[in-house]
C-alpha cells in the first residue's frame, strides 16, 4: 500500500503553491479536500493567461479576442466530453457547480415531466444539494420522495431495492461517493435497474469526478453532475452531463441571451443543447481553467489518484480505529478518499479548532448530511478528506495530533 | 500550543463543559422554555427560566449538546443569572455580548467567571457558540410561559 500511496503525492505536491505555507506555526496539512481541493499552478496560469491575453465574450463577437475566447471555451467542453466518455460535446452543459446542475434537472426536467403521485427515488445519504431541489420540485408537482435506506455500516441497503425501484419511480438520483461516509455506491447496477422500470437516472459525481475513472456510458446514467472546484479547478464552474435524447426533450430552464435562435416580443425559439441550458454570459475563465484542471488530472491518471486516495483513507481509517476514544465511520474496505470520525467526549468543533492550531485543516460539522447524521445519532462529526498531494506522513501527523487532543481536553 | 488557544480552552472552561452546572429540566408550569440552535454546527440548547414575582430570575436550568464553548458559556451563565433582578440580568446580557465581540471592552467585574470567555473574541467563528445560551436567554426575557425557539442564523 505504501508504495502506491506515495507515488503521486511526492511528485506533484510542488505543483500546488498554497501547500508550502505554515498555519499557526506548523506546516499546513490540508485534509478538507471533500469541501474543495487546492489548485495547481497550471490551473492558476490558465486563469491568468485568459484574462491577460484572451478575455472577451464568447459566441458573439467577430473580433480576434472573441474567437480565441470561444475556441478555448469550446475546447474545454470537448475535454469534459472526453473526460466523461460522453458521446458528444452537446451532452456537456456548464453550470455553477453540482448544486446548480441538480437544480437544473429538478426544475427543467422534473418540473415538466413529474406528475402528482410519481416517485423520486433518492438515498438516505444524499448531500443537501441532491435532496432539497427534489423536495422543492416534489412540493410543486405533487411527486413523492422515497429513500433507499442506509445500513448501520454506512452502505445502501439494497435488500428491498426491487420494491423501492418500481414503475412508480420516474426519476432516481443518487450520490456516487458519500461525502460523509466515503461509501462508493453501485451506480452502474442501480442505473441499469432504473432503466428497466423506465426511470430517468442521475448521478451526483461531486466526490468521484476528480478521484477515479468515470465513464457515463459505462455507468449508464441519463444525467451526471460534478463541481470543478473539487477537482483542481476554480469555484463557480461545474458540469451537467445529459444524455442527448433526454436533453432534447427537456425544455430550457433559465431564459436569456446565448440560448435563443430567434426572439420576438411574444415568444422565442431556442437553440438545442447545450446552448439551450446556458443562458447568459458563462463563467468563461472558470471553464477554461476547468479544461486545464482536466489536463492536469489526466497527466497523473485517475486510476493512480483513486489508488492513492483510497490508500490514505484506508490507512487513516485503521489508524483512527486504533486510537483510544476515537471511532471512524463508514465502510472499512473499499471507500472514497475520506474518513469521518467521532470522539466519545470531544465535540468536533473543539477538536477541529485544536487541529487548526497544529496546522491541520479538517472539517467539523454536519457535512450537509443532516438527516443521515440524525439517523446515526451524531449532531456532527470530524472529517479528513484526501487528494493527490497528501501523503502518508501527513496522515501519521494527523494521528499524532488527534492523540495530543486526548491529553489537551482530558 | 498557542496561548490564545490555551486561554480559550482553559481548565475552568473545560470543567464547566464536562460538568455543566444547572444542567437538567425545570418542570414548573410557570417556566419559560426556549429551544435554541446553531444550525451551522449543530449546537443545541434548551433553556428553562422561571421568573419570580418581581421579574427576577428565580430559577434557570439548561439541557443540550454542543461544543465545549457553548456548554461552558451556558453553565457559567446560569450560575451568574440565578437570583438576579431582571434589570441586572439584561445588563449582563449586553456586557457579555460586548465582552466577546468588542476589542476595546474592559471586562466588567460584575461578569465574574464569565470573563474567562473573553478569549472567544480572538476566534470570531466561535462567537456564535458562546452566544447561543445568551440568545436563548434574550428570547426568554421576551417570552411568556411555554415554548419558544431561536436560532443564531
- The CATH architecture name of chain B reads Alpha-Beta Complex
Summarize model confidence as the mean pLDDT of chain B. 91
- Please indicate the count of domains of chain B: 1
Which CATH C-level class of chain B is it? Alpha Beta
Main-sheet strand order of chain A equals 4-10-9-8-7-5-6
Topology:
The complex is a heterodimer of chains A (410) and B (153).
Chain A: H1 2-12, E1 22-23, E2 26-27, E3 29-30, H2 41-54, H3 64-84, E4 92-95, H4 98-113, E5 119-123, H5 132-141, E6 144-148, H6 161-164, E7 169-175, H7 187-196, E8 200-204, H8 216-219, E9 223-227, E10 238-242, H9 244-249, E11 260-263, E12 268-270, H10 284-300, H11 302-321, E13 326-328, E14 338-343, H12 348-357, E15 360-361, E16 363-365, H13 370-376, E17 381-385, H14 392-408
Parallel strand pairs in A: 3-15, 5-6, 5-7, 7-8, 8-9
Antiparallel strand pairs in A: 1-2, 4-10, 9-10, 11-12, 13-14, 14-17, 16-17
Helix pairs in contact in A: 1-11, 2-10, 3-10, 4-5, 11-14
Chain B: H1 3-8, H2 11-18, E1 32-38, E2 43-51, E3 57-65, H3 68-81, H4 86-101, H5 127-142, E4 146-151
Parallel strand pairs in B: 1-4
Antiparallel strand pairs in B: 1-2, 2-3
